[in-house]
Amino acid sequence: MNENTQQLIAQLRSIVGDAGLVTAAEEQASYVKDWLNKWHGRVAVVVRPADTAQTAEVVRLCHRTHTPIVTQGGNTGMSGGATPDDSGAQVILSTTRMNRIRAVDPINNTMTVDAGVILAHAQDAARAAGRYFPLSLGAEGSCTIGGNLATNAGGIAVLRFGNMRELALGLEVVLPDGRIWNGLRGLRKDNTGYDLRDLFIGSEGSLGVITGAVLKLFSQPHARATAWVGCDSLAQLAELLARTRARCGDRLVAFEMMSAASLALVLQHVTDTRAPLAQPARYNALIELADTEDLGLQAMLEELLGQAMEDVLVNDAMLCTNGTQAAALWKIREGISQAQVRAGKLIKHDIALPISAIAEFVEQAERMIAACELQAEIINFGHLGDGNLHFNVMIPLSSSYEEVQQATLQLNRLVHDLVTEKQGSISAEHGVGQLRRDELRHYKSPLEMELMLRIKQAFDPNLIMNPGKLL
C-alpha cells in the first residue's frame, strides 16, 4: 500500500471512525464481487458513512484527491454496476449504515428514508403506519432503497404502481464535489423547472450519491384474488391481459408470465413446489388482483377466467381460495432465479418490448436461436403486464469459458438487434452497469449518447463517480 493510499485511509478514518472502514481483504470479500459472482474487483478500503454529512465529507475528500467512488447498497444488482475494477484505486462507498426511517406521513402518504434502508424494512415501516409501499423484488430482504433508485428498480407490482421513478417524490443527493442537494420534497406537483430528481434515478451512481428519499405510500390492500392460468400462445396471454385490464382496472397488480421450460426448471430445482395445473401448458400466467376492501375480487376473476375458457383463450386455470395457495404460486414465480443458477450457464436478456410485439418477437427469436445449433434452451419469463421479458438462454453446464463467451456475443447481438427492430430496450429493470455498457453505444443513437455524456460531464467533471459503468 503506497503512501498516498495510507494517507487517504487515515483521512477517511478521521471522518467515519474505525466502525466506518473495512480494510481487511477477507472482510471486503462480499463487497468486491457481485452476487452472481460474475464480476470481481479490488479496493484498498470500503468506507461506510453513518449519515449524509459524513457522506458529503467522504465525497469531498475523494473529489479533492481524484479518487474514484463506487457507491454500493445491498450489492444485489444483476449488471455489475456496483462492483469495483481490479486496479485497487477505487473506493467503495457503502450506504448500509445509513438505515434510518426518518419520517412517515400517513396524511401526505409519504415516507422519508435513508438510502441504506433495506426494502423489506421500508415495507414494514409503511405497514406499521397502516400504509403500503408496493415495490416488491426477489432481493427485497437485502437490496436497499438507494440501490433501487439508482437502477430504477421495477419488480412484480410495476403494472399497478410503476417502478421507482414513479414511487419517489424527492431525493437527497451528495454531488460529486461534496455539496448536498436537498430535494426531499413530498410534492405531487412541482412545476419549477428541470426535474433533477429524474436525472439521479436510474443513473447507477454515475452522477452522485443518493442518501435519502421521499417515497410514495398507498392504502394497504386487504383483499386479494390470485390465479394461475395456462394457454397455448403468448398472443392469447396478451389478449387475456387486455381483457383483465378492461374488466378490473387498477385492481390488477400483477400479470406474470412463465414459459413451460421456466416452470419445469423450477419444479425440478426448487423444493416444495408443484405444478399448479393438471396438464402442462406452453405458457402460464400468474394473475393477482388487489383492493383496499373485498368488493368481489374473487368472483370478478372467476367470471373473467370462465369467459376466457369459453372463448378458448385459456386451457385451464387454478383460482386460489386462500393465502397459502397464493403463496405457493408466488414461490414458483420467485424461484426461477434460484433454479436457473442450479441448472446451467445462462446468457441473460432483460428486455422491454411493446406488449403488442412480444408474441412476434419471441417466435422470431426462438427460430433464430434454434438455427444457431448451440444446444440451448430458452428460459422465457417476466412481467408481461409491463412488457418486460427475461429472455434467457441456457447452455449446458459443461460448456467451456470460451464457448460461453462466444455464444454470449452471438446471442446478445441476435436478440438485441431484434429487440431494437421491434422498438424495444436492451435493459428493462436490471440497469446497464458493466454488462450492457459497450452495447449501449451500439443501440443508443449518437445524439442520445452525446446528451448523456454532456450531463455526466456537467455533474462530474473529474469523472470519479462509478467510472466504467453505464457510459
UniProtKB/TrEMBL annotation:
Name the GO terms of the biological process aspect: respiratory electron transport chain
Coiled coil located at which positions? none
Q: Which InterPro entries does the record associate with it?
A: FAD-bd_oxidored_4_C, FAD-bd_PCMH, FAD-bd_PCMH-like_sf, FAD-bd_PCMH_sub1, FAD-bd_PCMH_sub2, FAD-linked_Oxase-like_C, FAD-oxidored/transferase_4, Oxid_FAD_bind_N
Q: Which UniProt keywords apply?
A: FAD, Flavoprotein
Asked if Secreted is a keyword of the record, the answer is: no
Identify the PANTHER family for this entry. BLL6224 PROTEIN, D-2-HYDROXYGLUTARATE DEHYDROGENASE, MITOCHONDRIAL
> Can you say what this protein is called?
Hydroxyacid dehydrogenase
Origin species, per record, is: Herbaspirillum aquaticum
